[in-house]
Amino acid sequence: MPVHILEKRFRFDPLTFVRLRRLLHQNQPDVVQSFLFSANSYVRFPGVCPSGSKIVVAERCVDSWKSGWQLRIDRWLSNRMDVMTANSESVAEFYRSVVGVDEQKISVISNGVLPPSTTATETANAPDLRTELGLPPDTPVLGFAGRLAPQKCLNDLVWAFHLLHQAVEGSALVLVGDGPQRDQLAEFAESVGCRSRVFFTGHRSDAAQLIPQFNAFCLPSSFEGMSNSLAEAMAAGVPVIASDIPANADLITNEETGLLVPCGESVAICKAAQRILTDNNLAKSLGEKAQQVIQSKYSVEQMVTSHIELYERMAGADR
């Protein structure tokens, strides 16, 4: 399949409109699929797509971060497409209620989650997280994987761990990923007295092999779409703790497939983590049930099939 690079230079590059329009009109595609704000705006701009092409735009997050001008563009273009796909019910509700997208034009297709590595080669090549960090093999690890950014509310997690490590002897907090808050989080951990037990791995291409080594996974975010890292932890059978925002509640049934806690409440995070790290039966039950849910409802095969069915329906709509 040919790949064309448009060489977009900045946020709204007029030449990109021209190049994209020329390319689409030359190829006359049955369906044009775009992802996220910039691409979604380009393809919906009048005249860019051929009149016979069906436009499918995809949104992946409850975009409360968007500025006023971005929301105005979204609202102006809100119904200049045939379908908007959302990866969770919470994302669909945001674009219905805040942006004003016609409910009939929204289709929810959840992210597909790959199963954890299971082959002998992958298992043998997986790095041993505790050895790498200089920790004893029986260290209780509370972990996070993702971007170290304000949205993730990681100060709440660090403060929760400050309380937790006094109750669960020898425990460690491992933050996999990088982002603008890394230095600030390290300084905060130092200020509350737990820096020696908080470990930053930086960006890791092997994050999927590290997550299964956590004893518990925590995602305290203030907003999400459908968190891949949360779903990956559940797929690996790692018991999870997450803020009770709509996107996380879409994935987790509280006390059955994970523990939901009020957003911003470090004490609640600490208590939930302590329950998991000190109750093997609870940890095993939460992890197994979460794994079953991901395998049955969020497979890559289901995601691919849903997209193929959507494209076939769009391509054949006027035939």
From TrEMBL:
SUPFAM superfamilies: UDP-Glycosyltransferase/glycogen phosphorylase (SSF53756)
EC number(s) per entry: 2.4.1.284
Keyword 4Fe-4S attributed: no
Keywords assigned: Glycosyltransferase, Transferase
Residue ranges constituting the Glycosyl transferase family domain according to the UniProt record: 128-292
Keyword Lipid biosynthesis among record annotations: no
Top class in the EC scheme: transferase
Top-level taxon: Bacteria
Domain Glycosyltransferase subfamily 4-like N-terminal, chain residue ranges per copy: 3-113
Pfam families linked to this entry: Glyco_transf_4 (PF13439), Glycos_transf_1 (PF00534)
Record-linked InterPro entries: Glyco_trans_1, Glyco_trans_4-like_N
MF terms (GO), sorted A to Z: 2-deoxystreptamine glucosyltransferase activity
Family annotation (PANTHER family): GLYCOSYLTRANSFERASE, SPORE COAT PROTEIN SA
Protein name: 2-deoxystreptamine glucosyltransferase
Organism from which the protein derives: Fuerstiella marisgermanici
Source taxonomy: Bacteria, Pseudomonadati, Planctomycetota, Planctomycetia, Planctomycetales
Gene encoding the protein: kanF
